[in-house]
């Protein structure tokens, strides 16, 4: 497995230059490193911020599981979507409200066919809310299919 988390990961992360705002590092509660977050008050409603994970070494014709922690904290904070580079139009994963401030786990299967997925984009869309944040952390890429819970 490949650790792509932000404080100690080995992966190549890039801020999208064509979006409305950047994701920023935020300190973890326990003080162990940081995660990437978009505070609710950044930008205007429906503005987008994209953080791209560049995947250069994925082997074609195999499958991977992308596992990540996320949270949507705050009322009407917005949406978090995940896009794979070879499926440009529709998100492969989307969440638009948090039941509470807790961190949850997201899993996405990446099937490598004739085309190789060379990037994964985490997109935050600003909602109406003024408090809270959208956060992503502990991004790990595992070879093979996603494990059942």
From TrEMBL:
MAM domain: residues covered: 2-148
Recorded GO CC terms: membrane
InterPro entries linked: ConA-like_dom_sf, MAM_dom, MAM_domain-containing
SMART domains according to UniProt: MAM (SM00137)
Annotated signal sequence range: none
A Pfam cross-reference name: MAM
Entry-linked PROSITE patterns: MAM_2
UniProt-listed CDD domains: MAM (cd06263)
Taxonomic superkingdom: Eukaryota
Name of the protein in its database record: EGFL6 protein
């Amino acid at each position: 497995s490949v650790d792509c988390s932000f404080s100690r990961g080995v992966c190549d992360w890039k801020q999208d230059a064509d979006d409305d705002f950047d994701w920023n590092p935020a300190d973890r509660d326990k003080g162990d490193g940081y995660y990437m977050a978009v505070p609710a008050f950044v930008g205007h409603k429906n503005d987008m911020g994209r953080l791209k994970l560049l995947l250069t070494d994925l082997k074609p014709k195999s499958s991977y599981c992308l596992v990540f922690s996320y949270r949507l904290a705050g009322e009407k904070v917005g949406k978090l979507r995940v896009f794979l580079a070879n499926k440009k139009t529709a998100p492969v994963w989307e969440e638009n409200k948090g039941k509470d401030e807790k961190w949850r786990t997201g899993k996405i299967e990446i099937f490598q066919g004739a085309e190789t997925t060379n990037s994964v984009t985490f997109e935050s869309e600003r909602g109406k809310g003024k408090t809270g944040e959208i956060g992503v952390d502990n991004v790990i890429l595992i070879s093979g299919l996603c494990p059942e819970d």
